[in-house]
Amino acid sequence: MALLDILGRRWSLRILWELRDAPLTSRTLRTACDEASPTVLQARLDDLREAGFVELGEAGGYGLTALGRELCETFMPLHRFAERWKKS
After folding, report:
1. How far apart are CA 47 and CA 4, in angstroms?
2. Which of 34, 39, 45, 87 is deepest in the core (most CB within 10 A)?
3. Using one digit for the tens of pLDDT, what is the confidence trace for 8-38?
4. Which of the 8 DSSP states describes residue 60?
5. Is the C-alpha dihedral spanning 39, 62, 51, 9 positive or negative?
């Protein structure tokens, strides 16, 4: 239930999705999450960092941890299903 609580918070899944390919700076991540306020975005990043899914890189950008990448991989079958569903 704790995992679902974290992932159910507004913007959590979007942040993970935007970080799936490469780390992003705060500014780039905020642009990718076009409707998120800076305060909410930072709160979700803090939540995801505390949960061990996101880390702050040496260059100042945010990226997925190994655990975060594994979590995103679990969503890929759902993403593929959604893409097929959208076309039907």
Report:
1. 13
2. 45
3. 999 999 999 999 999 999 999 999 998 789 9
4. S
5. positive
